Amino acid sequence: MADSAGDREGTEDEVKRRFREALERKRGAARDKNAGGGKDSSKVRGTHGRADHQRQFRRKSG
């Protein structure tokens, strides 16, 4: 019984280590992506600009 508990702790530590490594890779990729930022780094453009037309609200007919 003691050996199986020790093995389980070893595998849990291995899983935790792998998750931490994956998280660090993810954070590193996000850091690299944001490093080249600038004024036009956003994908959304003109969020507060003037609307081309007045929005129409219609009652649902069905």
Task: Walk me through what this model shows.
This protein is mainly α and 62 residues long. The chain is built from 1 helix and no strands.
Number of helices: 1
Q: Mind summarizing the main beta sheet?
A: none
> What structural category arises from helix and sheet content?
mainly alpha
Total strands: the figure is 0
Secondary-structure element string: H
Percentage beta strand: under 5%
Mean pLDDT: 76
Cα(first) to Cα(last) distance is: 67 Å
Radius of gyration: 26 Å
Please tell me what the overall shape is: elongated
The helix fraction, in percent, is: 40-55%
Uncertain residue ranges = none
Brief description of this entry?
This protein is an all-alpha fold and 62 residues long.
